[in-house]
């Protein structure tokens, strides 16, 4: 499940991921919100907070994320990834080279620091 965090404003989108991420999460929440922000502001700053119940992505969700991320790579100013397993933070470092903007990962207890950085 994915829900938009109340701190989201302007060109900043923060979401909380719980349980297993699905294709519907991307197609109904993530992609429409990002698309709207990019259309309105020209770029986006995104924060993804994976809470303690986060259980990874379904294959279709990973595919949707990869397609959108590659297509819109130049439209991200910053991406903050908070929490999640170690492999997610390693993947963030690896894929950071494909993005125009900055990408930074934070431990699960550093949500406040991530918000400060993304703003």
Write the layout of secondary structure elements.
Layout: E1 2-4, E2 12-17, H1 23-41, E3 44-50, H2 59-71, E4 76-83, H3 86-95, E5 102-106, H4 111-118
Helix pairs in contact: 1-2
How would you summarize what this structure contains?
The protein is α/β, with parallel strands linked by helices.
Number of structural units classed as domains: 1
**What amount of the residues lies in strands?**
15-25%
* CATH level-1 class: Alpha Beta
**What Rg, in angstroms, do the CA atoms define?**
13 Å
- Total DSSP helices: 4
CATH topology, what is it called?
Rossmann fold
What composes the largest sheet?
5 strands, mixed
- Please provide the ordered H/E string of secondary-structure elements: EEHEHEHEH
User: Spatial order of the strands in the main sheet?
Assistant: 1-2-3-4-5
The low-confidence parts are: none
CATH architecture: 3-Layer(aba) Sandwich
Number of strands: 5
Helix content: 40-55%
> Which structural class matches the secondary elements?
alpha/beta
Shape: globular
Mean pLDDT: 86
The rounded distance between the terminal residues' Cα atoms is: 24 Å
Account of the protein in words:
By secondary structure, the protein is of the alpha/beta class. Helices cover 42% and strands 24% of the residues. Strands 1-2-3-4-5 form a five-stranded mixed sheet, with helices on both faces. It is globular.
Notable traits:
five-stranded mixed sheet; 24% strand; alpha/beta; 119 residues
């Amino acid at each position: 499940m994915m829900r938009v965090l109340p701190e989201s404003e302007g060109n900043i989108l923060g979401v909380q991921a719980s349980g297993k991420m699905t294709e519907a999460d991307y197609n109904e929440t993530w992609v429409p919100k990002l698309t709207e922000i990019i259309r309105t502001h020209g770029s986006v700053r995104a924060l993804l907070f994976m809470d303690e119940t986060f259980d990874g992505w379904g294959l279709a969700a990973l595919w949707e994320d990869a397609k959108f991320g590659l297509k819109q790579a130049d439209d991200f100013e910053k991406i903050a990834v908070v929490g999640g397993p170690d492999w997610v933070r390693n993947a963030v470092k690896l894929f950071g080279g494909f993005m125009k903007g900055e990408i930074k990962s934070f431990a699960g207890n550093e949500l406040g620091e991530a918000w400060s950085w993304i703003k």
